[in-house]
Amino acid sequence: MTAMIEISGAEKSFTMHLQGGVKLPVVRGVTFDVRAGECVVLSGPSGAGKSSILKMIFGNYRCDAGRIGIAHEGAMLDLAQAEPREILSVRRSTIGYVSQFLRAVPRVATIDVVAEPLIATATPREEARERAGRLLHRLKIPERLWALPPSTFSGGEQQRVNIAHGFISDHPILLLDEPTASLDAANREVVVELIDQKKRAGAAIVAIVHDDEIRHRIADRVINVTAFAAAA
Amino acid sequence: MAEIRNAIQNDQPLLVAERLGKNYGRITACRDISFALYPGEVLAIVGESGSGKTTLLQLLSAQLASSAGRVSYRMRDGVLRDLALLGEAERRFLFRTDWGYVHQDPALGLRMAVSAGANVGERLMAVGWNHYGRIRQTASSWLERVEIDTARIDDAPRTYSGGMRQRLQIARNLVTEPRLVFMDEPTGGLDVSVQARLLDLMRNLVGELGLAAIVVTHDLAVARLLSHRVMVMKGGQVIETGLTDQVLDDPHEPYTQLLVSSILPP
Amino acid sequence: MNAPAYNFAYLDEQTKRMIRRAILKAIAIPGYQVPFASREMPMPYGWGTGGVQVTASILGPEDVLKVIDQGSDDTTNAISIRKFFAKTAGVATTTSTADATVIQTRHRIPEATLHEGQVLVFQVPIPEPLRYLEPRETETRRMHALAEYGLMHVKLYEDIARFGHIATSYAYPVKVNARYVMDPSPTPKFDNPKMDNCAALQLFGAGREKRIYAIPPYTKVVSLDFEDHPFTRYRFDAPCALCGAEDAYLDEIVTDNDGSRMFVCSDTDYCEGRQAVGHRGRESAAPHKERPHG
User: Fold this and answer.
1) Could you give the dihedral angle defined by the CA atoms of residues C166, C171, C175 and C180, in that order, rounded to the nearest 10 degrees?
2) Does residue A194 lie in a domain region?
3) pLDDT tens digits for range C72-119
4) Does C49 score more than 80 pLDDT?
5) Taking CB atoms and an 8 Å cutoff, what residues of chain B touch C150?
6) The domain spanning residue A49 has which CATH number?
């Protein structure tokens, strides 16, 4: 199976200049692979650096050392050394990211928030909105909400919009940060189905889930990130 | 192990700044600025007043001659040209067709006493459009696009509100389908709700038209909404640069951390 | 008492040479405004000093001078300028367009077709066609240098937007030799076609603004317009009341206190010439007869 993500020796710390230059090491020596069609779950206590690792894979956090290899357009790209536009290209066509909290552009209708990743890859607007609608439907977001911006929705509804936004494209890599956190049982079920579907389609998935039951159902491997703890 | 290489080779930079600098005698307005802007990218230049960001914008748009370094632009024929070596006629032509420049004060970027239709149509007439009906029609459709009531096409911008004037300025700049738009604090001085509407418009237009843009702003929220990349300036130098979300979520430099922490949370 | 002795045509020879150099440059660059060192003349600015300086520089003892103002040889200004040159140059003067070698004019081009060897000298108030749109001289000079004339079309666009048609009726801008945009002086747009491919040399002098420009003979002169709003000469809807001319520019003359009026040729020489060979208009027999409405 093809390696889609190859992380090697990645390291991250924060230096808080406003607090007298205090250095907060987060992770060090992060090394693992993720192959196509498999789901790797990152586990570990709160604050261990799970979200940070996801953000490093997405290019949202810059890493201080190491390599983040991403299979993009037929070759391995080191995201840690990549140009800004290369990272933008990776986000457009290779990596989908469901963050922990929805951060949508204000005043944009839900249907357009979800359709946007497709439109960015040149899908015609009408078709993109149609597919967005079907996914929202599956995630049980009622149609009357589609024209509204998601900022006024409940936490669970926002989470589902977030998931739709991340799942709508055919990105070969998916990063999921607590995708089922605010959801009820029925909706959690829908998300598990969606993840299964993506796995069968060959996507490489890295996820953070606290719920043991969900973890059992989706994980092919579990990596405990305390192995990458950086000394204080 | 698969070869690790830079994966994107096909597109070429649109604007390249190399060690650009400007000083007035002993005063250094900006120094050692280097970056490459690609088609469709929006770059925000962020900093407080006096950081040199407006000087930089003027250097990049060839309105000021640099004291050091150079700026090159890729013309429509694909050739990368040093802006300082362009003839004046070429530079002015570029400014009117392939580039846009949105001023903070729309009165500087508009002819206030001439009708909105003529304001939008002027660039077309400057490149030889000679059919009144078509000029008017194009102007009218652009007014619609920037959400100005087309019934006001014959009114002078003197009669417009600030937000409308700014939208008219945008239409006037975009009518020749430029590839690169420079914006100097485009939402400065506008009411918050008007700002929001304008930002949404700009965001949509930039996306639809695939424009590259360089936006100078002191407002990080504007940067977050509009730009893919950001350069933080302080004391005439770029102290931090990267993707907008990188710089705003993971600020490295002390000044950047200060800027980010100063944004009031929603 | 000594009568003052004038140099030929009033100006000193060095000044004439300076102006002739400016004229040569103007002829070499048709439509381009050449700056010149305009002298103090014995009449104030606004009374034709530019035209007078051009005429003074090109007159020779053999020339025959005609001076018209709004087409007429006998208005105060025409008479005064003609007498000025008669006194200071001693040249022969005439009212006949055909016989003149130099014609100085304010605000009209004669109806009779001009021939080779003639010079038409225009009096110009504001030479810059873009002046009312762009007050900065630095900017207008650049626009001419770079042939950036979009703004001129903006003016025409505004007219159509406001009035439904291009409302400029005099000083209608033209493009000369496919290069420079020029203000033809406040002649009616009716006269614009006469400038195109004219056999005579056309010189333009602005005294207060200190500019000279020229259209050499047989030069292309095109009035600016839009494809869908082309330049049209207007036609009057009745012939000259005195000579019956159908294709001349007419002046409106109020004939009595009851508001009756008649329309007669503005070009007095042309009208008299036609009457002399027998052409008649409706009013020629009884100048005070009331003109019927029509």
Assistant:
1) -130
2) no
3) 999 999 999 999 999 999 999 999 999 999 999 999 999 999 999 999
4) yes
5) 122-123, 125-127
6) 3.40.50.300
Which chains does C contact via 3+ CB–CB distances below 8 A? B
Angle (CA) C23 C24 C30, round 5°: 85
* Smallest Cα distance from B70 to chain C, Å: 25
Distance CA C70, CA C107 (A): 5
Digit-coded pLDDT (tens) for A161-194: 999 999 999 999 999 999 998 899 999 999 999 9
Residue B74 has pLDDT above 90, yes or no: yes
Residue in C closest to B128 by C-alpha: C150
Radius of gyration of chain A (CA): 18
Name the token pair of A75: 């070759």
Residue C271 appears among annotated catalytic residues: yes
Instruction: Please indicate whether, in this complex, the C-beta atoms of A105 and B254 are within 8 angstroms of each other.
Output: no
Q: Which of A56, A78, A59 is nearest to A67 (CA)?
A: A78
Question: What is the rounded distance in angstroms from the CA atom of residue C44 to the CA atom of residue C248?
Answer: 32
Indicate the DSSP class of residue C62. Answer: T
A17 and B196 in contact by Cβ < 8 A? no
User: A77 lies in a domain?
Assistant: yes
Residue A196 maps to a domain: no
Give, in order, the Cα–Cα distances in Å from C259 to each of C114, C252, C283.
36, 11, 16
Single out the catalytic residue among C50, C51, C207, C271. Answer: C271
Chains in contact with A via at least 3 Cβ–Cβ pairs below 8 Å: B
Return the sign of the alpha-carbon dihedral for residues C93, C95, C98, C103: positive
Q: Is C198 a catalytic residue?
A: no
Q: Are strands A22-35 and A3-16 parallel, antiparallel or unpaired?
A: antiparallel
Helix C13-28 crosses helix C49-58 at what angle (to 10 degrees)?
100
Number of domains in chain A: 1
Domain hosting A55: range is 1-94+204-210+220-232
C51, C205, C240, C244: which one is catalytic?
C240
Domains of chain B and CATH, by start: 10-261 (3.40.50.300)
Is the CB of C148 less than 8 angstroms away from the CB of B133? no
Q: Test C162 with B154 for CB contact under 8 angstroms.
A: yes
User: What are the backbone dihedrals phi and psi of residue A208, each rounded to the nearest 5 degrees, phi first?
Assistant: -115, 120
Place of tokens 């439907």: A137
Q: Other C-beta atoms within 10 Å of A137: how many?
A: 13
Distance from CA of B92 to the nearest CA of C (A): 9
Please report which helix (H) or strand (E) contains residue B93, including its range: helix B88-97
Q: Which of B89, B122, B132 sits opposite C146 (nearest CB)?
A: B89
Supply the mean pLDDT for chain C: 92
Q: Which of C31, C48, C205, C281 is catalytic?
A: C31
- pTM for this predicted structure: 0.85
Q: Which residue of B has its CA nearest to C227?
A: B131
A14 domain-assigned:
yes
Burial of residue A53, with CB atoms counted within 10 A of its CB: 0-12 exposed, 13-18 middle, 19 or more buried: buried
- Provide the token pair at C59: 């007159």
Interface test with B, best of C146, C154, C155 (most B CBs within 10 A): C154
Catalytic residue among C198, C243, C273, C281: C243
